[in-house]
Design a protein that fits this description.
It is built from 12 helices and 12 strands. It is an alpha/beta fold and 359 residues long. The strands form 3 sheets. It has a 7-stranded mixed β-sheet. Helix 7 links the parallel strand 5 and strand 6. 45% of the residues are buried. Helix 2 runs antiparallel to helix 9, helix 3 runs parallel beside helix 9 and helix 4 packs across helix 8. Helix content is 38%, strand content 15%.
């Protein structure tokens, strides 16, 4: 085994529904662990997949030209500034594979999406972690951490698992201060859920910042998590490097068709955004009632302090048929759980189970 892999653990996803059913003999499980869309996906995506079914014996188009073209119109960028990936995970891997050399440094928050660190380590780089301040990226601290070995900086906005965002002007100033010979990767997986007006629209900055790369996905608000479709937006020269190291057919036919159908249904996206905002407000009110502290989230999840071991509350909720994520996986937040915002019924069931668990 390569030396770079010795310090890596195996990624632990949220517990699957089927496993919990078997373990506890429960017939009904509510999964609020993986930030999936509880409202499903657009009927237009399903219709598009059914039409594509007869072509599953054929390899997909390697660059997903139709989806790329429609995305370019939707986003207001050039088609050659978009690269499709097998989820954002693959795109993160392509970035580190293309730009990280042994000994290079990559700056990131100390508690954020773990695949940044994992891929930097796999490619021989050194993650440089800057502590969050009240759950928010410390952009000044990240600038101060830049050295001659720095190759890239990751900013997850909204951040996973805290759900917080950095302010519009703060992020704009940060991007402008990062030296032009290192990448700034802004991961906007939860972009469509944001309702705060103090959120930076990054795409207009691409024209003047060739070192900026933005990540988005169809896994969250579009509800296509199982199909694995993410995309990177950056200047053509940056994406050419990623294209050289990607798999030839990294997004499959059904995934491309479903994403195209989902993209056309922006009414459904607005519906999910509004329902998520209402659910977020409900959970925040209930946490206030229970005197529980939480971070102000702009995603489809909340990180809440339960004032005891997150594993303990996770296990208690599991026995009641509710799957969440324990914060003990993050050293900084051992007394927290992260809960995905569900449907109205799911949110009420979670609060009832949480109240019982805390008692």
């Amino acid at each position: 085994m390569r030396k770079e892999l010795e310090q890596l653990g195996v990624y632990q996803p949220g517990k699957p529904i089927e496993e919990v059913k078997r373990q506890f003999g429960l017939g009904r499980i509510i999964k609020l662990a993986s930030n999936e869309n509880p409202f499903g996906y657009s009927p237009m995506a399903k219709e598009a997949m059914l039409k594509e079914m007869d072509k599953v014996t054929l390899y997909p188009e390697a660059t997903a030209p139709e989806l790329t073209q429609q995305l370019s119109v939707h986003l207001g960028v050039s088609p050659d500034e978009i690269l499709l990936g097998n989820g954002s995970d693959e795109l993160i891997r392509l970035v580190t594979r293309s730009y990280i050399r042994p000994g290079d440094e990559a700056i990131m928050a100390d508690v954020t999406f773990p695949r940044y660190e994992t891929n930097v380590l796999i490619d021989g780089g050194s993650p440089v972690k800057v502590p969050l301040i009240d759950g928010v990226h410390d952009l000044e601290g990240m600038l101060a951490a830049i050295t001659s070995q720095t190759r890239m900086i990751f900013v997850c906005n909204p951040n996973n698992p805290t759900g917080t965002i950095v302010g519009r002007e703060a992020l704009r100033n940060f991007i402008e201060q990062v030296p032009g010979d290192m990448l700034v990767i802004v991961d906007e997986a939860y972009y469509e859920y944001v309702t705060d007006l103090d959120y930076l629209q990054t795409l207009p900055l691409l024209a003047t910042h060739p070192n900026l790369l933005v990540l988005r996905t169809f896994s969250k608000v579009y509800g296509l998590a199982a199909l694995r479709v993410g995309y990177a937006i950056a200047q053509r020269e940056v994406l050419q490097s990623l294209t050289k190291v990607k798999d030839a057919f990294n997004t499959n036919r059904l995934a491309q068709a479903a994403a195209l159908g989902a993209l056309k249904d922006q009414e459904y996206v607005a519906f999910c955004r509004d329902k998520n905002a209402a659910g977020r407000n409900y959970l925040e009110r209930e946490f206030d009632r229970l005197a529980l502290q939480y971070y102000p989230s702009q995603g489809n999840f909340l990180l809440v302090n339960v004032s005891r071991s997150g594993d303990e509350v996770f296990a208690s909720l599991l026995q009641r048929g509710i799957i969440v994520r324990s914060g003990t996986q993050c050293d900084a937040y051992p007394e927290t759980i992260r809960v995905t915002i569900g449907t109205e019924e799911q949110n009420e069931a979670f609060i009832a189970a949480l109240s019982d668990s805390l008692r």
